[in-house]
Amino acid sequence: MPDFDLLRKTASGPFETVREALAVRSAAGEPTLSFEFFPPRNQEEAAEQLWRSFDALMEVKPDFVSVTYGAGGSNRETSLAVVERMAKEVMTIGHLTCVGGSRQSTAETISRFKAAGVHSILALRGDAPLDNPNALETGELKTALELVELVRETSDLEVGVAAFPEIHPESPNMAHDSMVLALKQRAGASYGMTQLFFTVKAYTDLVESARAAGATMPIIPGLMPVGNAAKVLRMAEMSGASVPVELLSRLENASEAEARIIGMDYSIKLARELIEAGAPGLHIFSMNLSKAALEVARGAGLCL
């Protein structure tokens, strides 16, 4: 296995795009390492937790990071502020949702992301905010494909899109999802990032289906460390991700401490198997907590 830590230390400064990071790491025979963060709510303690975790994760020299964006732009200002601060240290992807938005307001947000130092946007449809449940019907932008097109029309920013290992909740089948991925690629998307999932097969089936549909862009698996088993299982239920029966049975009667060990062992094994299966990198959902994210990165051999 390559000496990932040495290679990261000798990299010449931050990458400017995800595709650049993927190309450089692939040429060196290694996967990319990246982390996802979310903007803190208006509590000082939450903000301090975010920046402590960010500083800790920067010590292992990730290739890039991403920052999530609330439904209907509900946390836009906080997200932009976080992105601007992170972009000074590492290539930062700004998530952007479009549901309920107008073309003009969304184009203005794209411009603000660029001014904040963003070089890449993850274009997402998003969910309707709680205070505007009819946003999908009333907004001008109704699909992530339209958002990809708008980003390409109004900026020179790189565009990435979401990929669904276990089918989008509103999709009839994976073939349809893969067709949409191919359409997004033709519209200008250059990489995909997956939603939460728990098996290598879910990822490899997605990649195989996407390739058959003509979506040849790299698809980076998003991995959620099972550090807090109860919390992750709730998120899996909300997102529709299937949790393997063997993992559920092992967690069922475990204490909190035992559940963490079981969950992290499973997460590290999954990370290793994804790399062995040819994943171009790992995007670890940090949940603004560095300990579990670092355990997975180190356990997968991506850093010391």
Q: What's the quick description here?
A:
This protein has 304 residues and is α/β, with parallel strands linked by helices. The protein has 13 helices and 9 strands. The protein is globular and about 50 Å long.
Provide structural commentary.
The structure is a single chain. This protein is an alpha/beta fold. The protein has one domain: TIM Barrel (Alpha-Beta Barrel), CATH 3.20.20.220. The chain is built from 13 helices and nine strands. A nine-stranded parallel sheet has the order 7-6-5-4-3-2-1-9-8. The radius of gyration is 18 Å and the shape is globular.
Structural class: alpha/beta
Instruction: Summarize the biggest pleated sheet.
Output: 9 strands, parallel
State the strand order across the main sheet.
7-6-5-4-3-2-1-9-8
Helix and strand sequence: HHEHEHEHEHHEHEHEEHHHEH
- CATH class reads Alpha Beta
Number of strands: 9
CATH fold node name: TIM Barrel
Specify Rg, calculated over alpha carbons.
18 Å
Query: Could you name the ranges where pLDDT drops below 50 across 5 or more consecutive residues?
Result: 1-12
Strand coverage percent: 5-15%
| Number of continuous helical runs | 13
CATH architecture: Alpha-Beta Barrel
Mean pLDDT: 90
How would you sum up the global shape?
Answer: globular
List the domain count as a whole number.
1
